[in-house]
Amino acid sequence: MAMTAAPTSADTIGVASRTRFGRRRSSALALAGMAGVEEMRSWVAVATEKARSGIAAIAQASLELDEARGALATASSGREPAELARSQSLLAEAGRSLAEARDTLYASIAAAEGYLGGR
Predict the structure, then answer these.
(1) pLDDT at 29 over 60
(2) Is a pLDDT exceeding 80 seen at residue 3?
(3) Could you tell me which residues come within 8 angstroms of residue 103 by beta carbon, excluding any fewer than 6 positions away?
(4) Which of its termini does the chain have fewer beta carbons within 10 Å around, N or C?
(5) What is the pLDDT of residues 68-98, one digit of tens each?
(6) What gap in Å lies between CA 48 and CA 46, rounded to an integer?
């Protein structure tokens, strides 16, 4: 199945359409209406594959953060100087942010696949 390149801003210049009520529709939406169902499926597959790669990268980053937290715990040897405690806290916050990003990517994938299910 051949895929065409995604439209660029140069492709959308001068492309506009109007809705039934006379409002202007964005150029990108006008071009998206021209894509066939199979082409849309292909692009959604590419997007979900990239999102899954992002999830894998987040998992790797989370492992690295856990190792960094472990190293700081070893460095503090049972006592927690304020600077190390602050660093531990920031690493924990980064871990929560990564988990939130991962969950957002999963939701994005589900929404994209749900869209295809309705087509």
Answers:
(1) no
(2) no
(3) none
(4) N
(5) 999 998 888 777 788 888 999 999 999 999 9
(6) 6
Which sequence spans correspond to the domains of the chain? 36-117
Per the CB < 8 A criterion, the answer to whether 43 and 3 are in contact is: yes
Count of CA atoms in the C-beta half-sphere (13 A) of 49: 6
> Which phi and psi (to 5°) does residue 17 adopt?
-145, 170
**E strands of 20-90, at which residues?**
24-25
Which pTM does this prediction carry? 0.66
Query: Which DSSP letter does residue 104 get?
Result: H
Task: Kindly list the distances between the CA atom of residue 26 and the CA atoms of 17, 86, 110, in Å, as whole numbers in the listed order.
Answer: 7, 47, 26
CA distance 30 to 24: 10
